[in-house]
Amino acid sequence: MEFPRQARTSSSNTHFCTQLANNILLKTAAENGSNAVVSPFSFHLILSLIAVGSKGRTLEQLFQCLGSKSLEEVNSLASQMIDLASPTDEKNGSSAAAGDPDLSFVNAAWVAENLKLKPSFHEIVEGLYHAVAKEVDFANKAEEVVAEVNAWAETSTRGLIKNLLTTEALKSLNERTALILANALYFKGTWARFFDSSRTKTRAFHLSNGHTVHVPFMTNLGFERYHYRSFDGFKILKLPYKSTRPTRKFAMYFFLPDARDGLKSLLEMFKANPEYFDGRFDLVEGKVSDFWIPRFRFEFEFEASEAMIEMGLDLPFDRMKAELTEMVLYANGLLFVKKVFHKCFIEVNEEGTEAAACTAVIIEQQSQSCPIASFVADHPFMFMIKEEISGVVFFVGSVLNPLLN
């Protein structure tokens, strides 16, 4: 398989987050053989917010991952992305027309009650990201905080994302937790041309391990016209969603390897060419005689810190080197990212697609307080008796067994 050279069409640079998503898909397919769905959009915006609260080498590393050279660039792109996912046309204040994709994107922040956001960070959180920062008690009411975050995620995704923060997240919350930053993305689009549900038929789906399962496949009349192209080792087909707005059009692309066990190779090629998703596929509209796509519905979740560190974004997670100094005032210790939780849902059927994603970041303070002293002489020890002023030692000895006379 080889990717053709192509012109880049996107003005944004989300290569790191696209690469992160691809690595997760590759790992999931190779190790678990399970479905996976990830939102590079959600990851890009959570990393953008972390960048706003960073400085020094940590900020420089985030610039590299976000494809930006300054916080102005980071915030400008974040603003464009948030507008793109806005449910209304903010330029003229009108709501999306009936049948247009239903989109929403929201952010939220929970802050330890003993901390205050820095004014500059607070301004970005509320102004650009439209998030309200709420004070909470991580130390004594961790279960209540988790329940509140989960309820927010479920409401923000129309009930699709439940239990964003699991037991693992609950165990991560303690008196040193400083912040939880989160976002939620919701998408629902109807196909520009519905599938005829009466033609849906159960067919064989061949797994990469050679086994076969039978699932419902969607189709339309034979020789329908689609945007399609065959490349070396794989094919691409595009299905557009209904849209009345010329400035915002969405479509779903299907990448089908020629070989039944070719998905891993295709993902490995995407890993080597992360910019491919920003390019122009140059698909050609033509008749497709045999066209079947399975219905599917699933959710996927993972903790992303290890994957990010493996890709080179390590400084925000390093409790000794992270420079997340621009988020809060009067922290007892340096801040660092402890965990990054991500969860997605997707359903594709005859009418269209419904999908949602949430990302939550737990930020903790490095412990700066002295540990509680302990001295338990329950094993052999030495002693000394001395006069303090003169420094004369009167006795010195050792105890191996207190019961010995």
Detailed description of the structure:
InterPro entries: Serpin_CS (IPR023795), Serpin_dom (IPR023796), Serpin_fam (IPR000215), Serpin_sf (IPR036186), Serpin_sf_1 (IPR042178), Serpin_sf_2 (IPR042185). The chain is built from 9 helices and 19 strands. It is elongated and about 105 Å long. The strands form 6 sheets. A 6-stranded mixed beta sheet has the order 5-3-6-17-16-14, with helices on both faces. A 4-stranded antiparallel beta sheet has the order 11-10-9-12, with no helix packed on it. With 405 residues, it is α+β, with helices and mostly antiparallel strands. The protein has 2 domains: 15-189 and 298-365, Antithrombin, Chain I, domain 2; 197-294, Alpha-1-antitrypsin, domain 1. Mean pLDDT is 85; it is low at 6-11 and 90-94. 25% of the residues lie in helices and 31% in strands.
Secondary structure layout plus pairing:
Blueprint lengths: L14 H18 L7 H13 L3 H11 L4 H14 L3 E2 L4 E2 L6 E11 L3 E2 L1 H9 L5 E4 L5 H15 L10 H6 L4 E14 L10 E6 L5 E7 L5 E7 L3 E7 L10 E7 L5 H10 L11 E5 L4 E2 L1 E8 L1 H6 L17 E2 L5 E14 L3 E14 L15 E6 L6 E7 L6
Parallel strand pairs: 3-5
Antiparallel strand pairs: 1-2, 3-6, 4-15, 6-17, 7-8, 8-13, 9-10, 9-12, 10-11, 14-16, 16-17, 18-19
Helix pairs in contact: 1-2, 1-8, 2-3, 2-4
Question: Characteristics of this structure?
Answer:
405 residues; alpha+beta; Alpha-1-antitrypsin, domain 1; 2 domains; 6-stranded mixed sheet; 4-stranded antiparallel sheet; 25% helix
